[in-house]
């Protein structure tokens, strides 16, 4: 089991910092690939620039770091919605997976959850201060419902009012994408990761369809029983959904379907409280040591990523919060029986 971090930028200083906190693996997001971030990445229509992707990989390797994965990338929302630009996105997706195979990049996220485009594309988010004054985000069903009632077409969640899609249409759309890309991934030796929607609000709340529970994930995995298709297991969203996250770790981990793990801590679940709040890694209801013990038991040898970090006073680049979470993981991992 190893630790990876999501790089905020590619400066020499930041990449050196990653090594200084004892991490050797980097997860790459759209912030490093798209030079312009004027829109949420799932709504991009620009053709994918593989040269830019290659430059990012080269920069990280030159810093004596390894690329663990690509996350939240590339955009395929238009393909999922059946829009004309979607054909270009599917072509780019397949070429991108082939390229990652040539570059020996092991895993990439397949962003089926960008129909809703959470968290930013779903209302109901808020910030909350916790012990000592650090701040993190939370989510409230009631706030979400209030905002959706406004039907604000200028809001970041206007797509829920403009676009139309049923849950079954969404599933079939996911199938069409998988039919295209899974064979390419198998031929390229690249593993594709599915991620649940964040926030994991069940269908029927006025949002476009999403992947919010383990049955939906199971249905997709059974439709494509490939060793190259698995999960980016997000402990936060699984806990927030009210499902037994520990049982799901054992289930999917025992089937070798967990390719990467996002690990954060939270308080509260949607079914019980109608809300949840993200908190520091040692300040919530998730037993982090138990998570790591289960991953060890099922033979997981992938990476753990410190997901959704707290904002600390004066920590403008998030280095202190990242170092704290990484140190916490390292300490707990060191206690696991070999």
Describe this structure in words.
The structure is a single chain. The longest helix is centred in the middle third of the chain and has 22 residues, at 167-188. α5 runs parallel beside α8 and α11 (245-254) runs parallel beside α13 (288-297). The protein is 41% helix and 17% strand. The chain has one domain (2-334): Divalent-metal-dependent TIM barrel enzymes (TIM Barrel). It has helices spanning 12-20, 30-33, 50-62, 77-80, 85-102, 141-150, 159-162, 167-188, 214-223, 235-240, 245-254, 270-273, 288-297, 319-334, and strands at 2-6, 25-28, 66-70, 107-109, 125-129, 135-140, 191-194, 229-234, 258-263, 265-267, 275-279, 303-306. It is globular. A hairpin with a 5-residue loop joins β5 (125-129) and β6 (135-140). It contains 14 helices and twelve strands. The chain is of the alpha/beta class and 338 residues long.
Please state the second-level CATH architecture. Answer: Alpha-Beta Barrel
Helix content: 40-55%
Which structural class is indicated by helix and strand composition? Answer: alpha/beta
Supply the number of helical segments.
14
The overall average pLDDT, rounded, is 94
- Radius of gyration, rounded? 19 Å
Element string (H = helix, E = strand): EHEHHEHHEEEHHHEHEHHEEHEHEH
Number of strands: 12
Measured by DSSP, the beta-strand proportion falls in: 15-25%
Terminal residue distance: 11 Å
General form: globular
Biggest sheet overview: 8 strands, parallel, barrel
CATH class: Alpha Beta
At the fold tier of CATH, the topology name is: TIM Barrel
Number of domains: 1
Q: CATH homologous superfamily - what is it?
A: Divalent-metal-dependent TIM barrel enzymes
Poorly predicted residue ranges: none
């Amino acid at each position: 089991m190893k630790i990876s971090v999501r790089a905020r930028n590619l400066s020499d200083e930041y990449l050196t910092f990653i090594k200084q906190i004892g991490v050797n693996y980097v997860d790459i997001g759209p912030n490093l690939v798209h030079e312009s971030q004027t829109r949420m990445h799932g709504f991009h229509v620009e053709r994918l620039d593989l040269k830019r992707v290659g430059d990012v990989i080269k920069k990280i390797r030159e810093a004596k770091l390894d690329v663990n994965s690509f996350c939240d990338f590339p955009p395929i929302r238009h393909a999922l919605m059946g829009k004309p630009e979607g054909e270009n996105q599917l072509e780019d997706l397949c070429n991108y997976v082939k390229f990652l195979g040539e570059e020996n990049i092991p895993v990439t996220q397949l962003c089926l959850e960008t129909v809703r485009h959470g968290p930013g594309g779903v209302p109901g988010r808020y910030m909350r201060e916790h012990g000592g004054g650090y701040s993190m985000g939370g989510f409230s069903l009631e706030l979400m419902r209030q905002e959706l009632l406004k039907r604000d077409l200028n809001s970041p969640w206007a797509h829920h009012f403009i676009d139309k899609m049923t849950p079954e249409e969404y599933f079939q759309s996911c199938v069409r994408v998988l039919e295209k890309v899974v064979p390419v991934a198998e031929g390229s030796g690249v593993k594709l990761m599915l991620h649940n929607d964040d926030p994991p609000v069940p269908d029927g709340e006025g949002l476009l369809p999403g992947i919010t529970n383990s049955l939906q994930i199971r249905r997709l995995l059974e439709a494509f029983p490939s060793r190259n298709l698995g999960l980016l297991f997000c402990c936060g969203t699984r806990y927030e959904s009210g499902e037994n996250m520990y049982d799901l770790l054992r289930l999917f981990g025992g089937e070798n379907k967990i390719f990467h793990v996002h690990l954060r801590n939270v308080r509260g679940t949607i079914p019980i409280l109608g809300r949840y709040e993200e908190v520091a890694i040692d300040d919530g209801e998730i037993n982090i040591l138990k998570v790591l013990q289960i991953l060890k038991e099922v033979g997981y040898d992938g990476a753990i990523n410190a997901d959704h970090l707290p904002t600390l006073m004066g920590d403008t680049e998030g280095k202190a919060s990242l170092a704290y979470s990484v140190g916490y993981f390292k300490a707990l991992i060191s206690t696991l029986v070999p």
